[in-house]
Amino acid sequence: MTDRLKIAFAQMNQRVGDLEANASAMLDMRQRAGDADLLLCPELQLIGYPPEDLVLKPEFVRRTMECAERLVDATAEPGPAMLIGTVISEGGSTYNAFLLADGGQVIGRTLKRELPRSRTPFGLHAVAPLGNACYIRQVLSVPGHPIWR
Fold it and tell me: Which of 18, 72, 84, 108 is deepest in the core (most CB within 10 A)?
């Protein structure tokens, strides 16, 4: 068991709509994160910010979800877990999401019900609850509260 979690913050440029370039940049940052336990990527990093009307196009959202799956799969390789800023479609709705991926699988996620579709930086966001707590490299994480195991 560990008593600390080493976090790397990924600050990188994004290109709105350029899934492959954004995913490649995220994987490059993961490699550069070295011995970090967790790589934090910005909100909507995979699709670029602000996404505007792209989030209203089902084919783009489908391709985004496929690309996010490839990022999740990449966490099976040695390196830090990743917090991936993306969008997902579920139950007929599209969500601004953070996926927590480690070991090639999603181990946690959080969803926003309101997607930013304008250049207004602080729009209304109704945050959906994450649900159960999850472990990141043997450290228990509860939404809003880290608790050491």
Answer: 84
- Listed in sequence order, the DSSP H helices in 1-149 are 19-32, 58-74
Tokens representing 66 are 């496929």
Tokens at residue 121, please? 């930086």
Structural domain boundaries enclosing 83: 7-147
The CATH number of whichever domain residue 56 belongs to comes to 3.60.110.10
pTM exceeds cut of 0.90: no
Query: Does 2 reside within a domain?
Result: no
Rounded CA-CA distance 54/74 in Å is 25
Largest Cα–Cα distance of the chain, in whole Å? 45
Please tell me the distance from the alpha carbon of residue 9 to that of residue 48, in angstroms, as a whole number: 17
